[in-house]
Amino acid sequence: GARRTMTRFILKFAGLCAAVILLCGQAAAEDQAYLEEFRAYTSALDEGDLEAALRHGYAAWQSAEAELGDDKLTAILAYNYGQLAIYSDPSKANIALARAKELAGAGLADLPKTELELYLAYTAFKLDEDSRRAGNALRDMLEQLVDNNAPPNRDTATMWYELASADMKNKRYRDARESASRAEAMIAAVFPDNYRTRAAAIMFQGVSLLAPMPRKERTIIQAIEKFQEAVLLFPPQESIENFDGILAQIFAWQAAAKAVYLSNDFSRRRLPEGTSEFDLFEGEHLSFEQCGGAWAEREPPNYPRRELFRGYVGAVLIGFNFADDTNLHDVRILAEVPERSFGDAVLEEVSNWKLTAPLPDDARCRKNKMTWVTFVI
Question: Quick one: pLDDT at residue 341?
Fold first, then answer.
């Protein structure tokens, strides 16, 4: 989903330097394997073929190790491959970048020190995303760039997002809020068309406001507002069959946040308005009431015993269609919060929901219907 949309392919400054050094300085050494592989690497870069560039970049570095050993060109080729592979193979990238750092430290090559340290911090983090030490080392590097007013770029945007994802996974909510806020701002700047990943970063901020205990009225409302901000980034959806998974997840979190609010003894002030389901889909839609709909049976689902015992509050977002009978058709869980907690209970009860009479044979009445089921203690 959002993480895959962050994958990208960039030719770095060091790769350009290597091209000048190798092609100009080694013109007489056309039979050397590392040079042939490097030329194949640059051709793949020009053609936008990441898989081939990675393969030839690795071969160029390994050939230089065999033919040159500790050498300036070995360092450059190790760096070229390492910075290109950080997202596809962080383990190999870490080895290559460590080798480049070793040779640069020996005075054999002049490589961009800040970028090299950043890439090493990122690959170390990717090799152990649960490590607080690795996460903090990457965070410190990224914060230094912010403090030095370095302009956002695709690498730093991606790294902040990955860091926010790991913070969320490890329930480090204070860190997650900061990481996600940084990620959102940078994604907006360097990936202006990537609304899905930006929305996911905003969702992380909302969850990081909602999750910590004890919950406060102000932060719950702020979370609801964050979820609504993320929702508004999405275009209208075509149908429940291809409803965007990230959008569904955001909606489920927004419903869960409202359930959390209702489960607490707050002042019950007016909650922020959310987007109507009719605003989510393309084309014209009619409400259940406008279509003359009436329920013969629509009981709420039973609260799962395990979730009730644990004090879980949550929400399930379901999509469905109507046909020429009184049943719901094509019922599907679009998202649930928390995951794998309430969905089965909802599906079991929804199978019993029935109308008093079929709805009119009109797609505006029968297609792409959604509802939220909340579980409030």
Answer: 84
The pTM assigned to this predicted structure is 0.86
Type of residue found at 346? V
Joined together, the tokens standing for residue 291 give 């279509």
Say how many residues make up the chain.
377
Please answer whether residues 165 and 171 qualify as being in contact, where contact means their C-beta atoms are separated by less than 8 angstroms: no
**Cα–Cα distance between 216 and 359 in angstroms, integer?**
43
Average pLDDT over all residues of the chain: 87
Contacts of 227 (CB under 8 A, 6+ apart): 202, 203, 206, 250, 251, 253, 254, 257, 274
pLDDT of 6 over the 70 cut: no
Digit-coded pLDDT (tens) for 250-284: 999 998 898 888 877 776 667 776 666 667 888 88
How many Å apart are CA 75 and CA 54, to the nearest integer? 16
- Percentage of the residues of the chain whose pLDDT score is greater than 70: 89
- For the stretch 94-140, pLDDT in tens is 999 999 999 999 999 999 999 999 999 999 999 999 999 999 999 99
53: left (phi over 0), alpha (psi -120 to 50) or beta: alpha
Handedness of CA 132, 135, 137, 140 (dihedral sign): negative
Q: CA-CA distances (angstroms) from residue 127 to 8, 86, 162?
A: 19, 11, 12
In contact, 12 and 78? CB cutoff 8 Å: no
* Average pLDDT estimate for 5-30: 38
Tens-place pLDDT, residues 208-227: 999 988 889 999 999 999 99
